[in-house]
Structures are given as C-alpha cells and as structure tokens.
Amino acid sequence: MFLIFGYKFTTMKKSLLFLFSVLVLFSCKPQEKEPEFQFEKYDESAAIEAQQNHQNGRMKFKLFQSKVIDMNEVYKPFQYDLAKFSEENYNKLKPLILEQDIPTLQNHVKEGKLSYEKLTLFYLYRIRKFESDSTLSLNSIIALNPNVLKEAREKDLNKDTISEFSMYGMPVLLKDNINTKEMPTTAGALALERNYTKTDAFIVEKLRENGALILGKVNLSEWAYFFCSGCPLGYSAIGGQTLNPYGRAEFETGGSSAGSGVTVAANFAVAAVGTETSGSITSPSSQNSVVGLKPTIGVLSRSGIVPISSTLDTPGPMTKNVIDNAIFMNAMRGYDKDDSKSKEIDEAYYKNGLPNSFKGKRLGVLKPLLGDSIYALNIEKMRKVDVEIVEITPPQISFNGFITLLNIDMKYDLPKYIASEADKSLFIKNVKDVIEFNKKDSILRAPYGQQLFDGIVKDETTLAELEIIKANLKLEAEKYLQALEAENLDAILSINNYHSGIAAVSFHPTLTVPMGYKPSGEPISLTFVGKPFDERNLLELGYAFEQLTKARKMPKNYQ
After folding, report:
1. Are 412 and 467 in contact, with CB atoms under 8 Å apart?
2. Which of 17, 164, 175, 289 is most solvent-facing, going by the fewest CB within 10 Å?
3. DSSP labels for 250-277?
C-alpha cells in the first residue's frame, strides 16, 4: 500500500514540477508587443484625383498602393527583434550610417561603434518607419529576406578581419527581376507572383561569396518597363506605384530600376542592384540623385535575371557615391560560363582607392546640350581645374528598328528564362500566355494596358532580319560617338539618360553622377559615356567630378 501511494506521490510531484517549469518559462518569455509602426491601407481617392492635374501624362496615376503586398506579413520575421530596437537606438545610429560610404561603415564596425546586425536592424527599422507612413511612403519594397538578421549575426563573428573596401556585412537590395532563393522573383508582374527559384542569379551568388547581405527586393517598372506604353515609370502590379523621395508624386522616379534608385536615395540600404536594357539604370539614378553604372555587356553576368534582351541587358550597381559603386562592382564580377556574353575581367574596379584628379583627361561636350544651364555650369567647373574640354556637334543618325530588336529578343529570351531558370510550377511559358493571363483581370493585372507585349506577339521579324537591324543600329550609334576615338576622349558628357539608347546598341558603358537640382528641386545628373570595357576609367572620372562638385543632397523629408 505504501509503495502504491509512494508511486502516486512521486508521479504527482513530477507533474507539479513540470507545470511549474512551463509557467516559469512562459512568464520569462519576452511578450511580443504591437509593432511601433503598422502598415495600414489608406483612402487614396483624393490623391489620385489630384494627380490627374499633373502636367506629365505619365504621372496621371490610377493607384498608389499595392493591392497585393501585405507589408505587415513581410515584416513578421523581424517583429521580435524590432520590438527591442527603439527610436532612441535608431537616432543614435543615424549619424554613423546615413550617407556614409562603405569604408566609413566598415571602420565603424572595426571600432565597435557599429555591428552588421545593428546596421541591418537600422535599415529594417528605417524602411518600416517611412513605408508605414502614408504621407512619406515610397512603395519601394516588394520583399525582405527573412534570414537577413541571422546572416548579419554570423557576419559579426568575423568582423575583425574584414577590409574596409569590402561588401562584407553590407545590406543591399535587389531589383525584383533578379533571382533569389529566399524570395520570389516577380519582375513586378502577377504572372510571376509565385516564381520561387531554386537558385540565386549568378551576381547574387557572387555577392554572397563576398559577404554581402541580401536585405530584400525592390519595386520596379513592371517587366522592366517593356510592357505598357506611356504608363507611369516605377509602377508594377505587385508593388504599386514607386514614388520619388525628392518629390512624391511630383517628380518621376525614372525607370525601370525605380525601386533601386529610390531606396538608395532614401538610405534604405547601403546599395542596390539595378538592370538596364536602355536607360534603366541611368534614368532612375539621375532622377534620384544617386550614382549608377551601366557596364559594358559581358562585364557582369545576366544569368538568373528576367530578360528583355539578351543583346542589351546588363545588371549594374546603384550607390550614394562613386567609391561604393566601385566596391560593389568588384563584389559582383566574375566569369559566368552560362552567359554567352560573359568576359574574364582581371581589373579590379576599386584598388588602392580612386585618384581625385582630372589630370590628362579629355572630355567631349555635346554642343546641343550647352543650353542646359546646369550642364553648362558643371562644364565650366571642370574647365577651371584644367580638364581638356572638346566641344562636339554629333551627326544626325537613324535609330530605326530599336523596338523591333527588343520585341524579337524578348519573344525568344523570356521563354528561355522560364524554361531554365524560373519556378517549374509557373503556368506561363511565353509573352502570349502573360497577355491572356492579364486579360482575365485587367484592372488588377494590367490597369495601364499591355500594348508593348501585344506588339511583341504581332512582330513577325525573322532572326536573320534582326541581325541586320542590330548591325545597322550599332553602326549608327558608333557614328554618333565617333569622337571618342577620333578625338582620343576619355568620355563624352551627357545628361541623365539622354543617350542611353545610343550607348546601349553600340555596347558602351555609362556612369551617371549627381550634378545638381533644377529650380523645382528635381535632381539632374551628368552621364559619362565611355569606351567599351573602360569602366575603371569612368569610375575615376566620376570620382574626380563628385569630389569637385559634391552635388548630392539627401531628400529633405528623409533625413
């Protein structure tokens, strides 16, 4: 009898101890509080009505907010960590992070003033702070990497051995046409909403190898702005309408890498990757007062990137300054056997700094652009530091066939991407499938139409005819830029993306650097058009110009 009662007593004691342990654990577990900043949908009807008075037809928006993304869900993986990160923490870190270049950030980490985890938390907090405010939101983020804080903590374990000129531990954002394993790759299109790829794009692999942190994916002009005609720059069905921090709904964002330009300008990350076919890096970089480099085709891999044109497409870095641009280029480069245009590039884009000198440089100035007062003023600034300026009157050229080139390339290149690099469960296989899918709910999926996709399907140009068109475009563009060789110039100076198409079809790199602001406050940039594979020289020119002018200013409402 005693043994039986003893057995019962011991069992009861164990049960009580277990219950007590559970209660202790529950009481000790940090209670999740409501996030400081919640994302809430707001009534945008008055703003849309007011937008119809905009003088720029492309800015007569039909909507602002995404009808697809729930940013509260996007932020769920970070809710606990951000609950411990206060506005006071954020304000203490601001002077260490805002507008700082990569070497400065790395030195702050080495000195113990900063960690990669704190840097990442700062950006997550900052994005949420602004994007959850209906008066300041830029609709710039499509997805965030749920593992990024864990990865940042792992990076902190090796922080003492890192070069100040490294992308190691630096949170970066990607245009959402670039494959990543953790997040879908949508190109802004609902047809690709569930495009969960098994592998990263080649340049993402390189960034990870070099220690960069993939913070998330940004909004873009849907299908890299080769989808609708005359529609707003920076709009996508997935992400809604991206807005310019220098003038929300007042100035265009540029396209198609709108989110890349906007997030760098607003200090939402250290840097962002854009992609360009013709102007899609130079345009948003110029419009958002950031530095953008469109490399020569073949310098950076295009594998794992939703295409427009295998002839012209390339990714490129978008940063707040030229030093970061060069460091970022180093981290993305590498020969890719799966990209037929990929080249072995031995030269480092950032090595022992960048020389702050125009010594011996000859720059071509386009006479038709001298009527722009900001352009002319900056040319005079360079003359005063002994830059040799050569004025050029470019010849008239024909640009016939450019749209045909894009039509036929995309007609063939998109199916190849879907077959080899997209999620195998996708129901679309080609452009025609996308058109039919969008027709089923055009208000949600294609509110501005899909005229350019319709044009792709209707274009019956043969591949043989396409080769002739490409050759003619290249000859015409080389004629326009002939002074580069004839006058032995280091670069020809343009404005914004004015000559991006010419540079694209003749395979010349371009670098855009802030040069000032119009009386309205709209940014304007100087664009250096260089010789093929001369990116290092362009970066040297851009750095000397940046140090001479120091033109970039933060957008005033995002400081």
Report:
1. no
2. 17
3. TS---SSSHHHHHHHHTTSSSEEEEEES
